[in-house]
Design a protein that fits this description.
2 domains; 2 strands; 110 residues; single chain; mainly alpha; 40% helix
Length: 110
């Protein structure tokens, strides 16, 4: 999702707040269907930790790539940020180029 924001011309500048929103969206995905629950310090979590894919080796959900709605995560995060901007709050991303610079948000169409 972060890569999509960079390609869109709106890189993330407040990673913590940005991640909170995305993690909240991911909570809707269910273990057993969209993800598996990995036990603490499992060999798989150890590997992910070794390559800095995760920050901790505690018990956690590992999502199946094709079960994650990547487009929806991007659109929801963008909508959250544009609403935040419209309300005068600090957005988690900032515009640095196209197509973000010329993008017009219409709340009625979301």
């Amino acid at each position: 999702v972060i890569t999509r924001f960079q390609a869109f011309g709106r890189p993330v500048r407040n990673m913590k707040k940005f991640e909170e929103g995305v993690f909240s969206d991911l909570r809707n995905l269910k273990p057993g269907v969209d993800a598996c629950l990995e036990e603490p310090k499992s060999p798989f979590l150890d590997l992910l930790f070794k390559y800095q894919c995760i920050r901790t080796q505690k018990k956690q959900k590992v999502f199946y790539w094709f079960s994650v709605p990547h487009d929806r995560l991007f659109l929801d995060a963008l909508e959250r940020d544009l609403k935040r901007e419209k309300m005068g709050l600090e957005p988690t991303t900032h515009v640095v180029g196209e197509p973000a610079a010329s993008f017009m948000y219409d709340a009625k169409r979301s």
